[in-house]
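tool=predict chain=A
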Amino acid sequence: MNIEDLRTYCISKAHVSESFPFDESTLVFKVSDKMFALTGLERIPHAVNVKCDPEMAIELREKYSSVTSAFHMNKKHWNTILLASDMSTDDIKKWIDHSYDLVVKSLTKKKQKELGFIK
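tool=predict ok
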């Protein structure tokens, strides 16, 4: 997966916005103003930070050499995944989806209903 594919995939999800809240090179993807993915555009090799269930986060780090605890993030809940890695594009998309879903589930029921995630 390259950086353009990452951006295209993230913004294709419902109610996603992108911004540069930290600096001019850290692109952040949010659902309802809560981060689910971020990437440093100047970082080589390219990588993405995604939120993760704590137990799964550890499993991913043990299984893939390209997955580490996220720098400057809560290490229990965030992983960094190198985009040019031993993970397939489908695997990376799966973990972006997982991050997005965790954030959506953390929204209030009222907000989830307002956005159409629940009826």
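The chain has one domain: 3-115. The helical segments are 3-11, 54-63, 89-106, 109-115.
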